[in-house]
Amino acid sequence: MKFLFSFLVFVLAVSAQNDICLEKIEFGNSCSTAEPSIRFHFDNSTGLCMAFGYKGCGGNKNNFDTDGTCSALCKPTSINWCPVKSEPLKKTDGTVLCKKDDDCKTNGYYKVESDYVPVCGKGRTALIVKDDGNKNMLIGKNCDSNFCPKQSKCTMGNYFATCCKKL
């Protein structure tokens, strides 16, 4: 009986944790007790943890200090961009590049990969930040997520936005 109770508590805890990851992005509100900062949320539509500009107070629990914490708690262990019997990853304009699983390998996958090498313009490069001891590029759902630091400019790719260093 004790084992069954422990198992039930574990299942409920994991379920509650996953519910946090399904909450929509909330930017919070400005307040005098905290500074705005770059935070991370799990975007269920892409299966990625993405940066956003947090205003300092309020919001919901899908709001993590680091990409690593967000990924550890929310990110699936494997991501298939065109999962069986589910919708392919969509571009920001709503169109889909991979109409069937086979197309994903040649079209959709490369478009997603190209977002990780953004075209920043002459003399510019993607902004790399240190997060949990790792160097990562900041990515956000779109430029409206207001996640790029002042020394950079938001650039929209095929599926998500990145920050490019200003000259």
From TrEMBL:
An MF annotation (GO) of this entry: serine-type endopeptidase inhibitor activity
Top-level taxon of the source organism: Eukaryota
Keywords, sorted A to Z: Signal
InterPro entries associated with the record: BPTI/Kunitz_domain, Kunitz_BPTI, Kunitz_BPTI_sf, Prtase_inh_Kunz-CS
Limits of the BPTI/Kunitz inhibitor domain: 21-74
UniProt entry tagged with the keyword Signal: yes
Cleavable signal peptide: 1-16
PROSITE patterns linked to this entry: BPTI_KUNITZ_1 (PS00280), BPTI_KUNITZ_2 (PS50279)
TM segment ranges: none
PANTHER family, alphabetized: BPTI_KUNITZ INHIBITOR DOMAIN-CONTAINING PROTEIN (PTHR47248:SF2), PROTEIN CBG06772 (PTHR47248)
Protein name as annotated: BPTI/Kunitz inhibitor domain-containing protein
GN (gene name): Cnig_chr_V.g18617
